[in-house]
From TrEMBL:
It comes from the Bacteria. Residues 6-236 form the ABC transporter domain. Keywords: ATP-binding, Nucleotide-binding, Transport. This is Energy-coupling factor ABC transporter ATP-binding protein. InterPro entries: AAA+_ATPase, ABC_transporter-like_ATP-bd, ABC_transporter-like_CS, ABC_transpr_CbiO/EcfA_su, ECF_ABC_transporter_ATP-bd, P-loop_NTPase. GO terms for molecular function: ATP binding. Belongs to the ABC transporter superfamily. Coiled coil: none annotated. It comes from Actinomycetospora endophytica.
Amino acid sequence: MSAPSLEVTGLAYAYPDGHQALYGVDLRISRGERVALLGPNGAGKTTLVLHLNGVHRAGAGHVAVGGLPVEKRNLQEIRRRVGVVFQDPDDQLFMPTVADDVAFGPANFGVTGPALDSRVRGALDAVGMAEHADRSPMHLSGGQRRRVALATVLACDPEILVLDEPSSNLDPVARRELAEVLVGLDRTMLMVTHDLPYALQLCDRAVVLDAGVVVADGPIRELLADDEFLRRHRLELPFGFRVPDA
Ligand SMILES: Nc1ncnc2c1ncn2[C@@H]1O[C@H](COP(=O)(O)OP(=O)(O)OP(=O)(O)O)[C@@H](O)[C@H]1O
């Protein structure tokens, strides 16, 4: 059996000022799963994500991506395997054209020539942005920029996609279009979000962090239908929203 896309075991971390942000977090994500990472402000979600791509070094515990330990000697391969799509696409887009931006990552990992062209085409096709390849990313709408940012990551063929608030600042059409793209990708995903309906639409499973501890890990539908659980962990569905029956 192949290694899970992500395996986090007993992960603990304190910031240099002594603030303990994670306490013994365990998380295992199988290949192809889409998992929502939920939790109130300050729960430790970003801190956890920054351990997946090796920005933070675990104080205790262990993180592996596709079976490869997140350690200094593996960092280049780990950064290819963990594709983080940041909340602000402008953090990811800085080249003159869309195609240049999408080529940047794989080119850095040594892909060249026709193989590089085919990566770029494949990634832009996957997000429905092929006809915008020669445009400047600066001239695209927010929703289009979010999709190009996703393509820059897909072009590196990551083991796991990490999406940071993928629905923020999107209008309802762009939100739906992005959801369709994401569902069509057939890739392991960890989606960090406060947008509970979007998480419900895209993920079967949710992991809830609160104060650095995993307080729930299970079917998202059940978690979001538990009003008392939501209240206890400062999670809130939009006014009037009801979790549809299965
Ligand atoms: N550089 C830092 N130094 C000290 N403490 C930090 C630092 N960055 C974050 N923290 C603390 O670590 C805890 C977890 O923060 P983190 O950013 O991981 O939460 P989060 O769940 O991503 O929150 P949000 O939903 O607001 O983005 C918080 O208490 C935060 O104040």
